[in-house]
Amino acid sequence: MSDEQELGITESKEYNTGEWYAEVVQKANLANYAPEGMSGFIVTRPRAYELWERIQGHLDSLFKDTGVQNAYFPLFIPESYLEREKDIVEGFDPEVAWVETAGNQELEERLAVRPTSESIITPYISQWVRSHRDLPLRVNQWASVVRWEATETKPFFRTKEFLWQEGHTAHATREDAWAETMRRLDQYEATYEDLLAMPVLRGAKPEHDKFPGADTTTTVEALMPDGKSVQGATSHYLGTSFAEAFDITYTDEDEESQIAHTTSWGLSWRAIGALIMTHSDDQGLVLPPAIAPEQIVVVPIWQADTKEEVLEYAEGITEDLEDAGVRVELDDRDERNPGFKFNEWELKGVPVRMEIGPNEADDGTATLVHRPDGESTEVDREDIAETVESHFDEVYAKLYAAAEENLAQNVREADSRADILGTIGQHGGYVKAPWCGDEDCETEIKDQIAAEIVMVPLDDDEAEIHHDDDCAICGDAAVETAYFAKSY
Amino acid sequence: MSDEQELGITESKEYNTGEWYAEVVQKANLANYAPEGMSGFIVTRPRAYELWERIQGHLDSLFKDTGVQNAYFPLFIPESYLEREKDIVEGFDPEVAWVETAGNQELEERLAVRPTSESIITPYISQWVRSHRDLPLRVNQWASVVRWEATETKPFFRTKEFLWQEGHTAHATREDAWAETMRRLDQYEATYEDLLAMPVLRGAKPEHDKFPGADTTTTVEALMPDGKSVQGATSHYLGTSFAEAFDITYTDEDEESQIAHTTSWGLSWRAIGALIMTHSDDQGLVLPPAIAPEQIVVVPIWQADTKEEVLEYAEGITEDLEDAGVRVELDDRDERNPGFKFNEWELKGVPVRMEIGPNEADDGTATLVHRPDGESTEVDREDIAETVESHFDEVYAKLYAAAEENLAQNVREADSRADILGTIGQHGGYVKAPWCGDEDCETEIKDQIAAEIVMVPLDDDEAEIHHDDDCAICGDAAVETAYFAKSY
Ligand SMILES: [Zn+2]
Ligand SMILES: [Zn+2]
């Protein structure tokens, strides 16, 4: 793709994070902006779509191993269905795109392009559940949704259309539904950690910020390099509110009618944005090996008289790696010099580079260079696939450790309003403070510094909860530990 | 799912194909109709979506092995983009759904919900192609599209929204683009044959029925049990018409600007409809083992005193099959008798049933029953996984042979207008006739019996082409062999 020819990131990640991010997305061929008249939309190019395919594959196999089935519901939702949901979940008022004319005719009822699908999925779940033997019932949909937000576009973080999955389940008991909520949160956490090399914080949203209609909204939060938090995925225990509204009842073993408990959970392509933002640097994209389109690039370095020997040696290694299932690219282009190739593959985020010159070919070795820190190692030709795999593990470990260190350094404590404001103002990141649970105390912080409570620890993590302290803002008795942060 | 309880197909495949099909779709839990106000849409339930996932997986891996990358383009297309395509491809006037209001505001330009995406994909391909080194460029999208046709809904065959893939490629030469067109047609044919156990006919659409703007439209056609032909997938060689209109040019090795040759190709969930229609029977769904959600169901048959022994034996076999990667379901429900279970799994299309009673447990055997014809075989417990796999092969072979025989018996020849009309009227299926190439001669047949020319053999299959005969309709010199058929 020829727009690769303008190589080189010019913006600084540290000083100009937003512009740097936009430049990486464009120059690493991840996305283009959509045509005029469609601001807020993006074209997801193959290299970014492949990241989404790997996230999808990873998560989908976790889902399927734990009883989830995929389905597909219509793209449109009749207005009356959305209205019905509004009645249940006060405050739910998505900014939607409407279809009023189709096939050259005005529709009797206008149709929303789905902003989320629970208002159409839940009535069908109600139809499909009759007996306790039908439970638990778990349905998931991978699709795009449209929310017509007017805010500035940031590819993968904020777009009017985005790709995501939404899971919806029904259960006989509260315990079973709660276990489901936690199971999905665990799977989101594992996906961030194992696939994306990103540590996350787990917690619940405060009462006033949970999903409308939910009993509990849980979240995984990831810290971005600019000190802001990203909500990485959410998992909701919905109690019986949706089941009551949509009549999801079942007959139990004694033939009595019972109301079901439901959950829902979702992860969007924002995960791609968080991934790019976390690991990449001023040379371009950085990717963990498990998700990288190419895991290793082999760059042969020759003069006219060594070309044949070096190339043959490089091809042999490439073949061995392919046979071992490694995603390897041999960059044998004649028209580019090695320095150009190094820069290009660094920009594209290939985790490990292998350099092969006549010395390596003669000695039966190869030089491996790690993308994140440029560390270079000479390795033996023998068992090359195993060696390369172990270097992938090292690169993963480096990326994870750096993100983990950044997170650990950016969770601070505060015990007064001034302290909260000052700490976030100076450092960003998370500030933990004892909190009375009252939204007004959050509002005071929000109004002054645009930080909010992104999570409180889950009840099962008792140690974190400030039962004995006073609220850092109002001085009343604290019942929670609030994590304040600026947020995407 | 409780609606399974109304078991049993009541309509006849032979005498009432349409109603029989609708009943199979509903009772095998494949799809529901969408809510009121959304006629023409369906809810794709997990058992049908799993069929789509396997078709997608099969085809996607063929695509990726041959250089295709997936991408994702916006759901909406500005009206001016669609208009631009209309200019190129006279006659292209999809019935679209329009978004005119979004986020509580009227849009400056209305947006079409994509009826197909070439009008937005092609301009980006134009942006991405600069040099001959960027070619071939191959992009594919898996997504849903919306076409507001007013005709009656038939799940998977005819719905206002459907799932499909569309591939778009650009090439330096005509030869390369034509090879691509044939490569995709081959892959569609292989998917029908290998995965769906359906033989297809390959051919080209007549000049007057090709995709607007295309140089050549190729097709795979499948014969349905009611004697009608289904267009199973299409692959278009677009020549340079799209490249000219959208300015897809590249600089060649001599730095001269050249126009690219492009192709496009697509397959929709109509493949699911054709699959259901072809193999299923008056007992319900029939599926080839490669695509079936459950490939085999183990039904233990016990009395109170033999239950423990039989169940333990059945569990051991189930485990062996699972370990070998077989998709197996052990139906150990207490509340259902074996006869009920047999009927239910027949309805659901499980290709092989294993019956295990006390005799089998004592003798170290098992009874295998083939879904398509009820053939029953006693087999040894030893090497059970291998044995079961070979029975899968047998079931596949039976399904394929039956469909192949049906196809072979339903391609007939005719050499006069009366003969064409009479043969299609009496038998349905395909009627081959020498044809002059003039649309008027097709119109005569169409007007009288609603049959059309669904394909002509491809040029590379010279033997099929009637160069020496006269057109069966007008008597002028024939230049093609036309395959007339009624069509979905
Ligand atoms: Zn307070
Ligand atoms: Zn004629």
Automatic annotation (TrEMBL), chains A, B:
Subcellular location, record wording: Cytoplasm
GO MF term list: ATP binding; proline-tRNA ligase activity
GO-annotated biological processes: prolyl-tRNA aminoacylation
Annotated catalysed reactions: tRNA(Pro) + L-proline + ATP = L-prolyl-tRNA(Pro) + AMP + diphosphate
Keywords of the record: Aminoacyl-tRNA synthetase, ATP-binding, Cytoplasm, Ligase, Nucleotide-binding, Protein biosynthesis
PROSITE patterns: AA_TRNA_LIGASE_II (PS50862)
Residues in Aminoacyl-transfer RNA synthetases class-II family profile domain copies: 19-288
Lineage: superkingdom: Archaea
GO cellular component terms given for this protein: cytoplasm
Compositionally biased intervals (Basic and acidic residues): 370-379
Annotated EC: 6.1.1.15
CDD domains the UniProt entry points to: ProRS_anticodon_zinc (cd00862), ProRS_core_arch_euk (cd00778)
SUPFAM superfamilies given in the database record: C-terminal domain of ProRS (SSF64586), Class II aaRS ABD-related (SSF52954), Class II aaRS and biotin synthetases (SSF55681)
Segments of this protein annotated with the region Disordered: 358-379
Domain remark from Swiss-Prot or TrEMBL: Consists of three domains: the N-terminal catalytic domain, the anticodon-binding domain and the C-terminal extension.
Family in the record: Belongs to the class-II aminoacyl-tRNA synthetase family. ProS type 3 subfamily.
Quaternary assembly: Homodimer.
Protein purpose: Catalyzes the attachment of proline to tRNA(Pro) in a two-step reaction: proline is first activated by ATP to form Pro-AMP and then transferred to the acceptor end of tRNA(Pro).
Name of the featured protein: Proline--tRNA ligase
Classification of source organism: Archaea, Methanobacteriati, Methanobacteriota, Stenosarchaea group, Halobacteria
